[in-house]
Each structure stands twice: as structure tokens, then as C-alpha cells.
Amino acid sequence: MESWTIRNSPHAATIAAAQRAALAAVEPGAAVRRHVRREGNRLLIGGQTYDPEAADRPWVVGGGRAAAPLAAAPLALAWNRHR
After folding, report:
1. pLDDT given for residue 1 in this prediction
2. What order do you get walking across the sheet with 48-50 strand by strand?
3. For 6-40, b where at least 16 C-beta lie within 10 A, e where not — what string?
4. What predicted TM-score, i.e. pTM, was given to this entire model?
5. pLDDT tens across 41-64, in order?
6. Of the candidates 26, 43, 55, 58, which lies 20 to 30 Å from 49 by C-alpha distance?
7. Burial of 77 from C-beta contacts in 10 A (0-12 / 13-18 / 19+)
8. Residue 38: which domain range?
9. Do 36 and 44 touch, CB atoms closer than 8 A?
10. What integer best gives the mean pLDDT of the chain?
11. Is residue 45 part of a domain?
């Protein structure tokens, strides 16, 4: 009896594409970038507007394995002058 795997499935390409799309959708940096944007000198996060120039030193606090990519996304958009 042959075991079924994704590799020998007639739908292997579709399954692989679905897996790639699912992983891309939950990538921490991409998830944040979908909800953070810059409009002129303002940063919009979750419906709130912030002035990144008003912050002398930006602070982003987080924890866990995804903390670094979650923090990098808004910093890249907002505080380029601090790099």
C-alpha cells in the first residue's frame, strides 16, 4: 500500500502554494506592515496617528520569538533618522 504524501499527490503544486501563502500571511513583519503606514510626517498604527519626529528616541517593547521582526517593521517606517 502506497502512503500519501504531498510529494506524490496530484495536487502537490496547489498544496505547496497554499502553504507558502499561509506562512507569508503570518510572517510577523508582514503582519505589522499591513496595519502600519506612513502618511507624510505621520505614522498611522491601528487607527491612531503618531508623530515620529516628536520622539527623541523611539521605544518599541515586545517579547517572544517574533519580537524582533514585529519591532523592526514600524521602526523602518517611522524613525529612519535614528538608524
Report:
1. 64
2. 36-39, 42-45, 48-50
3. eeeeeeeeeeeeeeeeeeeeeebbebbeeebeeee
4. 0.52
5. 888 888 889 887 787 777 777 788
6. 26
7. middle
8. 28-82
9. yes
10. 81
11. yes
**Residues 40, 44, 47, CA angle at the centre, nearest 5°?**
140
Domain assignment of residue 77, yes or no: yes
Q: Report yes or no on 8 lying in a domain.
A: no
How many domains does one find in the chain?
1
Q: Which distant-in-sequence residues (6+ apart) come within 8 Å of 71 by Cβ? A: 60, 62
- Residue 39 · residue 78 · CB < 8 Å: no
Length of the chain measured in residues: 83
Grid cell for residue 27:
510572517
Question: Whose grid coordinates read 487607527?
Answer: 47
